[in-house]
Amino acid sequence: MNTPTIATTPEEARFIIAQARQNNLKIGLVPTMGALHAGHASLIAQARDESDVVVVSVFVNPTQFNEAADLDAYPRDLAGDIQAAEAAGADLVFAPGAADVYPPGHATTVTVGGDLTGTLEGAERGRGHFEGVTTVVAKLLNMVQPDAAYFGQKDAQQLAVLRRMTRDLLLPIEVVGCPIVRESDGLACSSRNVSARAERWNTPRRL
Ligand code: PAF
Question: Looking at the whole model, is its pTM more than 0.70?
């Protein structure tokens, strides 16, 4: 198990990834908002199986939250995330700052229109939620430029929206949907489940 390299700016990440790319290595990206749990570990493990270099991004994306209080309460533990990413086999943890992702005066967003973002969670949380997700993921894909990006099937609508975004923007990136990992009581692992975080070190169970 290698200790992952930590990059906190896009420049550092690009420098490290450029070296891998020069060597024709396949780069897999697992985008996360941190608070890594067994579900993330399984995404990282799948990326590990299918890529030469595994990058895990950790960024709590403010633009996809509806409520400021929810954003403030979101669990943050970068040291723990680095440990969890290491245990799961990551090579690089990329944890950019808010100003790296959203430079002062930023005015550009990425929106997937139509029913895909207006129904289900989009109807519940508003289209702004998915616009926040697509905007940040487009930025992460741009910063890391992976060959493949890994997302959980737990967030099925998010996965469909991200597939549509990469297709519509002609991004040469494979979007890989990974099986749901559940806690012992059947609940899908999520950073919002306190008990899922307690299970951080458990072996992922694929259903
Ligand atoms: O699924 C998540 O954790 C987030 O929505 C993502 C894809 C990392 C974007 O912030």
Answer: yes
